[in-house]
Design goal:
Low-confidence stretches: 69-75
Structural class: mainly beta
Number of helices: 1
Strand order of the largest sheet: 1-7-6-5-4-3-2
Strand content: over 45%
Mean pLDDT: 85
Largest sheet: 7 strands, antiparallel
Length: 108
């Protein structure tokens, strides 16, 4: 499933359970929100997921800058190709991402 026309609304970074977690929240034109989250530590690879409604998904991310020649008329275009629930996500990575999102979504 491809989700188009994503607008970034905020970004956050923090350390959770031994992982650095970077998240950018996006909103769809319908109002539905999701996060592009990347988590890593010094011992392993980057883990990159789309998170929506509390679930982690495997996905490919496509970002086009609004000032590139091919995007002048549309103002840029962000999309995510969601490929299904991330069943292969290590539990400690999922916990770090979920705790990060909980904190970020409940900021005062």
């Amino acid at each position: 499933m491809i989700v188009n026309a994503l607008t970034p609304t905020r970004s956050r970074r923090g350390d959770f359970h031994g992982y650095a977690v970077l998240g950018v929240q996006y909103q769809q034109p319908s109002g539905v929100q999701g996060w592009h989250c990347t988590a890593w530590n010094s011992k392993g690879p980057l883990h990159d997921y789309w998170v929506s409604k509390g679930k982690l998904y495997n996905a490919s991310f496509h970002y086009l800058h609004p000032e590139t020649e091919s995007n002048n008329e549309t103002g840029g275009h962000n999309s995510v190709d969601v490929r299904g629930v991330a069943r292969d996500c290590p539990p400690q990575v999922a916990e770090a991402i979920q705790d990060a999102l909980y904190d970020w979504e409940h900021e005062a």
